[in-house]
Design goal:
422 residues; 36% helix; 2 domains
Length: 422
């Protein structure tokens, strides 16, 4: 997942106001000996966090093939002291740290999967203060931090009213469509007990993902009769119909600055001297404005129809016509979501970050927390502590900055504890 700053477009008019008692609660937590002991353990554990980040990164976890990494993380969860550790029906590795109060629980998760396909070479290398490897920032480092939180809480003998459900989940990236968190919150044995969800993603700036970006993806296939480039010249060309579509689609004028679109893949044809019988393109559309996303979607469909019609009008006839078919890529739509400003989880995150000496920054993103937000359940994605560089690329990296990393980890841990003690 990549998060975005979009000033002026994301409910950024003001950070949510904090109730008068809330900063005191956050400051009181900072003074608590148990929390101080937990933070001290995070500092002592820093080298292990780095080592486990490397270990996790080098276990491949392409989309829908996270099982090997999930099994390894489940072992690490048991070693960290979690109870009832298991791999659930969807493939998530889960474990519980019991609370002292009622049967409700706060879930905190970090996704296991990466965007990189099976067979991608993955070997972590170090360059100065950077560790580089595909998937190391998104999201291997967050899984390592998730495990470090368990050890820190136990080292500080920290108690919580609510149970803590630690989740290394599958299916956040690409066609996964948040399947791991969907299962967790909608069908798992714990779903009725979960009161809030916190997702971990890379970052070291006090970021709070409070808005879920709506995403729609389509593949459009254009088919025609095809033929030899000389002897069938004048026959309708699916590639031309596709080009007509792309030109029309790119003329869209968005109503919202967060609305973006891209034709990212084109394919098809047989040879350079053959009129193609079939070509296709894949399209990605995103926005934090649901109405503008709908408007863009309709504009796109009209562009497909008009582009196809234009080619058929120019060349169609006895030699055949071009037909276009639109297919949805995502198995389940990624909706536009947000968490209301007065939600206690959001207030907790803001107060925890401020009490840690940083200023929170609201962001949008396409991440696991969109699922609880869409369900009306409190859900946020928070920084796990380390700066990320070039995510989703072969040169993906994290930046090791021990003081800042530990400060941000402490802020996120404080958010978890404030929430789990309510």
């Amino acid at each position: 997942m990549i998060r975005y700053f979009m000033p002026g477009a994301l409910m950024l008019a003001a950070l949510p106001p904090i109730a008068s008692a809330q900063p005191v609660t956050a400051e009181a937590l900072r003074r608590d000996p148990a929390f101080k002991a937990a933070q001290a353990h995070l500092a002592r554990d820093y080298d292990r966090i780095v080592a486990e980040t490397i270990r996790i990164t080098e276990i491949p976890a392409p989309p829908f093939k996270e099982a090997e990494r999930a099994s390894a993380v489940a072992v690490m969860m048991r070693e960290a002291g979690l109870r009832d550790v298991h791999i659930d029906e969807e493939g998530n590795a889960v474990g519980i740290r019991p609370g002292t109060g009622n049967q409700s629980m706060v879930a905190i998760g970090a996704h296991l999967d990466t965007v990189f396909p099976e067979g991608t070479p993955i070997k972590v290398r170090r360059e100065g203060d950077r560790l580089l490897a595909p998937g190391i920032s998104d999201n291997s480092v967050s899984v390592a931090v998730l495990l470090a939180f368990v050890r820190a809480l136990d080292a500080g003998a920290v108690k919580t009213k609510q149970d803590l459900l630690f989740v290394a989940n599958v299916g956040e990236e690409e066609r996964g469509a948040f399947r791991g968190v969907r299962y967790l919150l909608q069908r798992s044995p714990y779903h009725s007990r979960i009161s809030a969800f916190i997702g971990l993603e890379p970052g070291n700036t006090g970021g709070i993902t409070n808005v879920g970006i709506g995403v729609r993806r389509y593949t459009v296939t254009y088919k025609g009769p095809g033929g030899h480039s000389m002897f069938a010249f004048g026959t309708v060309n699916p590639a031309t119909a596709m080009a007509e579509t792309i030109v029309r689609f790119d003329r869209y004028r968005p109503l919202d600055r967060t609305t973006v679109w891209n034709v990212g893949l084109v394919s098809g044809g047989t040879s350079i001297n053959t009129i193609p019988a079939s070509v296709s393109m894949s399209v990605d559309m995103r926005s934090t404005n649901a109405a503008d996303l709908d408007r863009l979607d309709m504009f796109f469909r009209k562009a497909v129809a008009d582009g196809t019609t234009a080619e058929n009008a120019a060349r169609g006839g006895a030699k055949g016509t071009v037909a276009a078919k639109i297919e949805t890529v995502l198995p389940i739509e990624r909706p536009v979501t947000h968490i209301p400003d007065d939600t206690m989880l959001l207030r907790n995150a803001v107060s925890a970050i401020r009490s840690g000496g940083m200023e929170p920054s609201m962001r949008s993103g396409s991440s696991d927390s969109a699922i609880p937000q869409d369900m009306g359940l409190p859900g946020l994605t928070l920084d796990s502590g380390m700066e990320y560089v070039a995510p989703h690329s072969p040169t993906e990296a994290i930046v090791l900055d021990r003081p800042t990393n530990l400060r941000v980890m402490g802020n996120t841990l404080a958010t978890l504890l404030l929430t789990a003690n309510q």
